[in-house]
Amino acid sequence: DTGVSQDPRHKITKRGQNVTFRCDPISEHNRLYWYRQTLGQGPEFLTYFQNEAQLEKSRLLSDRFSAERPKGSFSTLEIQRTEQGDSAMYLCASSDKGGAPSDTQYFGPGTRLTVL
Amino acid sequence: DAKTTQPPSMDCAEGRAANLPCNHSTISGNEYVYWYRQIHSQGPQYIIHGLKNNETNEMASLIITEDRKSSTLILPHATLRDTAVYYCIVRPYGAGSYQLTFGKGTKLSVIP
Prior knowledge:
The complex is a heterodimer.
Chain A: E1 5-7, E2 10-13, E3 19-24, E4 31-37, E5 44-50, E6 53-57, E7 65-68, E8 75-79, E9 88-95, E10 106-107, E11 111-115
Chain B: E1 9-13, E2 18-23, E3 31-38, E4 45-50, E5 55-56, E6 61-64, E7 70-75, E8 84-92, E9 106-111
Parallel strand pairs in B: 1-9
Antiparallel strand pairs in B: 2-7, 3-4, 3-8, 5-6, 6-7, 8-9
């Protein structure tokens, strides 16, 4: 399978715990995006990487959130001191044509986080 | 603030064409119209995009009005597997314009 993969698919944690999600983009895609989706809403942009550089962050990305893409391949999204409001689907997408009109973001299956 | 307006839900009979409308009256000259869909519990799936000409691919057709203020996504022969939430997104191209801004979309139900 050459699509975007995410791990884990589901995560249940207790409030105050730290969690980390992983995203493996499509091979050779240099751009990687994280989105968050709450129930009944469309996905919301969190952050974007070009290779290993984090170039854009949404105001939704509070200080408790950190994302990395150390070697320009896979990425991790960590949430520290989780809160019940962090419960959501976390989606990763990748693309290889930047802002070009033909740029298409391909999404992974998502990681569903439940904070108890 | 939303850049697109879509009906919250639509029904379509299996085998018939599904026509999903989208209003984007404030669209700018450098903004494209993109359509994605999201089947329950999956990640969004790219369908098609266009600037001002009508576009067709193996999944769907995109019809954009001459003034570009609205568009219609057409699924020519809807199947039960097309039941999903469909998102219409306007997105500029160029430096620094990478994120997709999703609304609530249209929930399409294909009925046997």
